[in-house]
Amino acid sequence: MTQETSTAPKALGHIRVLDLSRVLAGPWCSQNLADLGADVIKIERPGAGDDTRAWGPPYAKDAQGKDTTEAAYYLSANRGKRSVTVDIASSEGQALVRELAKEADVVLENYKVGQLKRYGLDYDSLKAVKPDIVYCSVTGFGQDGPYAHRAGYDFLIQGMGGLMSITGERDDLPGGGPQKAGVAITDLMTGMYATVAVLAALMHRDRTGEGQHIDMALLDTQVAMLANMGSNYLNSGKPPKRWGNAHANIVPYQTFACADGHIIVATGNDSQYQKFVEAGKRPDLGADPRFATNPLRVQHRDVLVPLLAEMVRERSRDEWIALLEEVGVPCGPINDLADVFDNPQVKARGVAIEMDHPAAGKVKLVRSPMKLSATPAMAGLPPPMLGQHTDEVLRDVLGRSDAEIAALRGKGVV
Fold first, then answer.
1. Active site residues
2. What local confidence, expressed as pLDDT, does residue 92 receive?
3. What pLDDT is attached to residue 409?
4. pLDDT tens-digit series, residues 44-56
5. Please, where are the H alpha helices in 209-357?
6. DSSP secondary-structure letter at 106?
7. Which structural domains are found in the chain, ordered by start?
């Protein structure tokens, strides 16, 4: 586990992000921008903060092994940011946010459609004080359409957006039925798409001087990320069904039970299939004309897969992995997270990092997977305590005196 340090230049070191978002989709976007070097100022409710601060256990532990107030969920999406508490329901708090927006390049928010307009913090209002602002709104259903004013949550969108209709075991097998993904994949992908959109808008601004409003919707993202499944439906007119750990278009591309566990076999072409059955001492399955090509294997999967399952059960998991790696057939184990973080490749890539933290002493996090040779992505700051940087930001960015900050705090504005 490594502590991230670097003196390399930051790709977004010239960018300031005013982050009004909370929970996951918006914070995931702003964390990406922070990893790339942006100064991210996270605006939170005084006394409460981001909802995910309380989404525990587990919590980060202090030096005595006792729980802190920092939920692991919150820690996962908020490194690299500065926390400022502002009551945006107050007129003085709204004025502070408008001042901060004037000093920012990007505003990120995930309030319900129209909610920030009541506070004078919507795109049109902030564009009036910063004409070239890049303003990114993240909602469940977008800024228009019949569902625009509905609240959107990842689980609901996984269902509404079709993901759960193709995730889970086949209906005719034990345990069959719709299943959500193990992480909030729609939120995470919306955060990733929002990151790309913000970077594109910044490039446009740098070329033209023009800012813009970005409208990101969880439902749009979920439908877009159906990828080949969405294309399969649009080009066939037939809704895809659940295949569990199998693949709709490739056979064999699934899990198999070994003598002592499970293995994933992912044969992407006919040559790999031939090597697979030869390694299993079943050359007859390679010579059988019913299984000669992938389209034929898909057609005859109900005959082929039980034969392959019988073949795989004859060896242990480690035997299969060694055998298939030797002949170039993609394969692998199904790891739990203890296995993942103990994996030599994961360790070699420095995926797990450790950061100093004011309450926990040290916190363990997962580093950004973006590896840039000249401007490496770096966590920079640990996930902030609630309001940790309020005085610093108001003083250094807005020029407020200590007395003025104290007065704002006395009135509950910050």
1. 187
2. 97
3. 96
4. 999 999 999 999 9
5. 218-224, 228-236, 270-279, 283-287, 294-299, 301-312, 317-327, 337-342, 344-348
6. E
7. 16-225+343-410 (3.40.50.10540), 253-336 (3.30.1540.10)
